[in-house]
Amino acid sequence: MLNSEELAVLEREIVSCRRCPRLVAWREEVARKKRAAYSDETYWGRPVPGFGDPDANVVVFGLAPAAHGANRTGRFFTGDRSGDFLFAALHRTGFANKPVSRHKDDGLRLCGLWISAAVRCAPPQNKPTPDERAACLPYAARELELLDAKVVVCLGAFAWDAALRLQGVRPKPKFAHGAEIASRSFILLGCYHPSQQNTFTGVLTPEMLDTVLSQARGLSGKGTPEEDGLVG
After folding, report:
1. Rounded to an integer, what distance in angstroms lies between the CA atom of residue 80 and that of residue 82?
2. What are the tens digits of pLDDT across the range 21-63?
3. 154 forms bridges with which residues in the sheet?
4. pLDDT in tens, 177-223
């Protein structure tokens, strides 16, 4: 219970953050102008907090909110093609009760897993600066401490590098899909990001993502989805 309360306090702090002027201006401009397909929607347009199971031992760690995905819906990987690919895999591997994530109140529930990112505001061209990353990483550090995470699945090289910085790992191991590193607090797993560029070209397949997520489940000490009563 205390864990949930502390995560809620952190969430309020994240959502109210205005540390990075460039990111504040961009996320709010996108929320005002909108994309034509979402012209009738009210964009979130604020920093995006992590979400999931407060008792999670596995964390999926991304780069930053998508301009018309999480910056619109207020929940990571929700409402975009990357999320469609990710949540289908989370459902197949027993971490999610539904294979799709459309908006914050769609009934999606995660079990044993938390989703977060290195940067909480949508950046222009999806490229936060080093200073913006440094300003935001303390939020992830606090989040991971509250969660007592055992395994962090890093989606892409940026998330991998950010997680290594959090753990002070030197020299930094090179990112690779399927890479596994034991840091001082948790195990890091590398996974290609489920971007359209990667999934449309077959760089990341459903089977590859399922394998990493199943590996994370095993390393975290959780039972199988069947044992946890999530499937069957």
Report:
1. 6
2. 999 999 999 999 999 999 999 999 999 999 999 999 999 999 9
3. 61, 190
4. 999 999 989 999 999 999 999 999 999 999 999 999 999 999 998 65
**Beta pairing class for 180-182 and 187-191:** antiparallel
Superfamily of the domain at 2-220: Uracil-DNA glycosylase-like domain (3.40.470.10)
Ranges of each domain in the chain: 2-220
- The DSSP secondary structure of the chain, one letter per residue, reads -HHHHHHHHHHHHHHT----HHHHHHHHHHHHH--GGGTTS----SPPPPEE-TT-SEEEEES---TTTHHHHSSTT-SSHHHHHHHHHHHHTTSBSSS---STTS---BSSEEEEES--SPPGGG---HHHHHHHHHHHHHHHHHHT-SEEEEESHHHHHHHHHHHT-SSPPPP-TT-EEE-SSSEEEEE----HHHHHTTSS-HHHHHHHHHHHHHHHT---TTTTTS--
Per the CB < 8 A criterion, the answer to whether 161 and 125 are in contact is no
pTM reported for the whole predicted model: 0.93
Q: How many CA atoms lie within 13 A of 58 on its CB side?
A: 24
Identify the CA nearest to 116 among candidates 48, 71, 160, 50. Answer: 50
